[in-house]
Amino acid sequence: MKKVLIFITLAIILHTGLHSQTYVPFPTANASWNVYREYEMLGDPKNTFVDKYTLSGADTTINSIKYKILLDNSYFIGGIREQDKKIYYSPSYGGEYLLYDFNAQVGDTIRHSSTLSYMYTVVKAIDSIQIDGNYRKRYIVSVYGYEPDSIIEGIGSVKNSLIYAVQLISTCTCVNYWEHICFEENGVVKYLNPDFSDCSSTKPIAGINETYSDAEIKIYPNPAQHTVYIKSNKAQAISIFNSSGQLMEKATLPAQSEYMLNIDNYSKGTYFISVTGGTKGAVQFIKE
Q1: CB atoms < 10 A from the CB of 169, how many?
Q2: Which CATH class is domain 217-287?
Q3: Residue 38 pairs with which residues in a beta bridge?
């Protein structure tokens, strides 16, 4: 009961911080999102780089629907469109996902896909933030039911990445990590993540975030049938969730050694391993 009361109080406080504002549509041209990336294959050195998502204003048609072309470092990856304050993303390989819903209210669950049950976001609170002299709504959410994010009207995610909520799960034995750096429109930086010094940063400011290899975990094999091995550089607690957000079990990882997770009793499907109190996201695996 105490946790429920705390959540309700927080929601009320944030709502009282809402300012009078006019809805800010999603950009259609001259907009870019820089995203810091870390990618690491098990046993290989970590690679860091920046993804630059861009909307130039050019149109494309996918399944007879018109979209604005979305580029990732100059490569075509799909299209984005807006309808009734809902932002849709269609990747180049087909299909369409509900990326953001700016009609959502506190407590709403946004289903990003009609077929992939793990793709959902829960709205925890709504407040306002001043961008370029005007107030916009900011949605405090949990992606997949537990991954924290902040979504700003007319910008999107300012914690993870533009299309983070609809990223397909990788089945490689690897670690992926995304973090929003900045949003730029018409040549002006409208939002800069305070964890980065400027829009062209290729790494977080020292001391603010731990490196991924220090703070997170590695798992293998993936997919798995009977056992998943989890390795961490330090002792830390983890939680395992299924694709519906249901807690399966908790465990404590020993430092500098492997933890063996028996998944014989798990149903086939997608699962997430989250570090308790961590800030770097969840590692996903598939039970075959």
Answers
A1: 17
A2: mainly beta
A3: 48, 177
- Do 267 and 280 form a contact (C-beta atoms < 8 A)? no
Domain ranges of the chain: 2-209, 217-287
Q: Is the pLDDT of residue 268 over 50?
A: yes
Per DSSP, helices labelled H in the chain are: 2-16, 212-215
- Cross-strand bridge partners of residue 126: 139
Close Cβ partners of 266 (under 8 Å, ≥ 6 residues apart): 242, 248, 287
User: How far apart are the C-alpha atoms of 204 and 217, rounded to whole Å?
Assistant: 19
Total length of the chain: 288
pLDDT tens track for 172-194: 555 677 889 999 999 999 999 88
What is the rounded distance in angstroms from the CA atom of residue 205 to the CA atom of residue 53? Answer: 22
CB atoms within 10 A of CB 180: 25
The answer to whether 262 and 226 are in contact (CB under 8 A) is: yes
Share of residues in the chain with pLDDT > 90 (%)? 36
With vertex at residue 144, the alpha carbon angle to CA 261 and CA 90, rounded to the nearest 5 degrees, is 120
Q: Assign 13 to helix, strand or coil.
A: helix
Give the separation between CA 146 and CA 272, rounded to whole angstroms.
10
